[in-house]
Amino acid sequence: MATATAEAAEDTGAAAPAARVAHVSKSFPSPGASGGDQLVLDDITLDVAPGEFVTLLGASGCGKSTLLNLVAGLDRPSAGTISTDGRPALMFQEHALFPWLTAGQNIELALRLRGVAKPERRPEAERLLDLVRLRGAHGKRVHELSGGMRQRVALARALAQDSRLLLMDEPFAALDAITRDVLHDELTRIWRETGLSVLFVTHNVREAVRLAQRVVLLSSRPGRIAREWTVGIPQPRRLEDSAVAELSAEITEELRREIRRHGRH
Amino acid sequence: MAGTDTDPAARHAEASQDLAGLEAGLDALDTVQTGRTPLREVLLRKVLPPVTAVVLVLVVWQVLVWAEVAPDYKLPAPSAVWDEVSEAWLQGTLLDYIWTSVSRGLLGFLLALVIGTPLGLLVARVRFVRAAIGPILSGLQSLPSVAWVPPAVIWLGLNDRMMYAVILLGAVPSIANGLVAGVDQIPPLYLRAGRTLGATGLRGARHIVMPAALPGYLAGLKQGWAFSWRSLMAAEIIASSPDLGIGLGQLLENGRNNSSMAQVFLAILLILVVGIAVDLLVFSPLERRVLRGRGLLVSR
């Protein structure tokens, strides 16, 4: 096993992973009066290679959002270590754009907090808006944008942090199917253009297969890594592609088996 | 699709073209249309109703005077009050009365702002401070600030400092409480998003907490101004002294001493007008602007 990891390190040019999660567990105080802690994540080990797109898939209660918060540094693990290449950017299910700023100002705030000098902020924000195909939306208020446009601004704001790692917490779950499909294409395109590493959390199997190079299935209560799939289907993929459908069916079957386990005791 | 046998780069470029068109269509379909209401409609909806109400009050007042329901030392005619207004205007004292009170009120309010804002931030963000003085601060809001006039006169004497002390005791709790309420209502998501962007500590307070709390803070400021103005009037009516200059409160008190009901009415009218004017000219536009910018104002 040790030799295998050494070889893998050579393969990637000895580059440090974008994120390394090693034997991480997380427990929260139990909500009941009984005391004791509830184990949410149990011994998770996961690497995200530079430029890799990984989806974390699981039913509710598998702690996938908790894991993402840990990687984002918003919370500390109870055991194990997490290291990332710089501070990761994070995108939420809700757009989380600040309503007191315009779309462009939201991006400029991220640039400012990153330490970008004032004269460079405006052109950089324009460039990022252009990247998510929202040229001319700089002065738009958040409430004037549609759900899909808001998530694209949120993506541009996350990209403005200039992190090597982008964490996404079900960012398209609240969108309608057509918009979501378009944003899948958009995200794939931007990921290819920027060479970012992405860790994408979802409960949607087809979304996971549609986007990822690697799908990691988490079991629930406590969250453990149940299985992994490498997705070799070439991009651009479509949700309707038979290869996507086939792999989705296989993963769904596995996911159902995981969920059924909980009904038995 | 012939795309399967062309090279991957070309396929990506083609897909990207398709996508751009699709996306432009979706954006156009989803975008909210906003427009401005025409001036005529604004006049009809916003100006006409209050003007009608004022005219109606004047008519009823005049009818009561004609019906002689009360002797004129108790109920002066609208024209008598108007004579007071024009006389004070011609003597050049009208603006002096107003300015004496308004300058006190504004300076007091600004002082309250400077003290109340950091106090509110402290109470909102530091758990120990909140537990220590939070309840007292909200309790102070229900204490009528007139109650502070007697001790303030004893401690500070009959002077401007005493007026400012009374204003501060009335307005600071309102401003601080408004800010606390504003901070408490910030959606936790904004704070998390701010932290991932690197806005922590003072930078977080400046870029996330203060702007996010602005609607509640503005409501607190508005109430703070109302409290400042009320406390000041109470102080001016109770504590009159020749070296204090004649503000609106003293004007009212002088009217009572001279048994001039028209002057009393004039003073009440001016106090009301100043209160309404500051609200209409300062706070309402500010509040509307903030809420509209955030899409929180539903315009019909």
UniProtKB/TrEMBL annotation, chain A:
The keyword Nucleotide-binding applies. The keyword ATP-binding applies. Residues 19-247 form the ABC transporter domain. Pfam families: ABC_tran. It comes from the Bacteria. Keywords: ATP-binding, Nucleotide-binding, Transport. Signal peptide: none annotated. InterPro entries: AAA+_ATPase, ABC_transporter-like_ATP-bd, ABC_transporter-like_CS, ABC_transporter_ATP-bind, P-loop_NTPase. GO terms for molecular function: ATP binding; ATP hydrolysis activity. This is ABC transporter ATP-binding protein. It comes from Streptomyces griseoviridis.
From TrEMBL, chain B:
It comes from the Bacteria. It comes from Streptomyces daghestanicus. PANTHER family: ALKANE SULFONATE ABC TRANSPORTER-RELATED, MEMBRANE SUBUNIT (PTHR30151), TRANSPORT SYSTEM INTEGRAL MEMBRANE PROTEIN (PTHR30151:SF40). Residues 98-282 form the ABC transmembrane type-1 domain. Belongs to the binding-protein-dependent transport system permease family. Keywords: Cell membrane, Membrane, Transmembrane, Transmembrane helix, Transport. Coiled coil: none annotated. The keyword Transport applies. It is found in: Cell membrane. The chain crosses the membrane at residues 47-67, 105-124, 136-156, 162-183, 264-284. Its main location: membrane. It is a multi-pass membrane protein. InterPro entries: MetI-like (IPR000515), MetI-like_sf (IPR035906). This is Sulfate ABC transporter permease. CDD domains: TM_PBP2.
